[in-house]
Amino acid sequence: MKKNNVILIGFMGCGKTTVGIRLSYRMRRIFEDTDKLIEKREQREIKEIFAAEGEGFFRELETQMLSELEQTVSSRVISVGGGTPVREENREILKCLGTVVYLRIRPETVYERLKNDTTRPLLQGEDPKGKICELMEKRKTAYESCADFIIDVDQLSVEEILEQITGRVGEE
Ligand code: S3P
């Protein structure tokens, strides 16, 4: 059965964490961020996990964390890493966890927001713009297929995004 968490998904830089924290205040709920939970458990940053163990290892930790949340939490706001919905197994867990909100963003906006970021290992190569477009193209069906609803965030303030989410979640 579907639980009553609100889960934020979307590409890196779409605002999952910022929106998630503000949403949790607004809804008086506890906020969880799977990347932060993984970092805490591993006692190291995501970029260190990628560098030392590779992406595959990180993806295993991600799936494990997600299924633990599914078994243990309810009534929370949860933000997950940008790559989480790519695995079909994860999409199934996301759907069971609660209402899935996809914060959709254009590649140009991601690039503008993250061009000076050093914390995302997947965007540290020669051509971050090309990488953003490539990953976005590969992932968009996965994001759309597990979303209960989609918000196009490029032109919206955090406040406007919150209005849309609380309006829609209330209707469910
Ligand atoms: C990733 C997104 C990151 C983090 C890791 C991999 C991805 O999270 O999980 O660097 O594959 O898109 P954010 O979406 O919070 O940046």
Protein described:
With 172 residues, this protein is α/β, with parallel strands linked by helices. The chain is built from 8 helices and 5 strands, in the order E-H-E-H-H-H-E-H-E-H-H-E-H. The chain has helices at residues 16-27, 34-42, 46-53, 55-72, 88-97, 107-114, 128-146, 158-171; strands spanning 5-9, 30-33, 76-79, 98-104, 149-152. The longest helix has 19 residues, at 128-146. Shikimate-3-phosphate (S3P) is lined by residues 12, 16, 35, 46, 81-83, 120-122.
- Major sheet characteristics: 5 strands, parallel
Query: What is the string of helix and strand elements?
Result: EHEHHHEHEHHEH
What percent of residues are in strands? Answer: 5-15%
Structural class: alpha/beta
Arrangement of strands in the largest sheet: 2-3-1-4-5
Query: What is the average per-residue confidence, as pLDDT, rounded to a whole number?
Result: 96
Query: What's the CATH class label?
Result: Alpha Beta
Got a strand count?
Answer: 5
- Helical content stands at 55-70%
- Quote the distance from N terminus to C terminus: 15 Å
Structurally, the number of domains stands at 1
Report the C-alpha radius of gyration, rounded. Answer: 15 Å
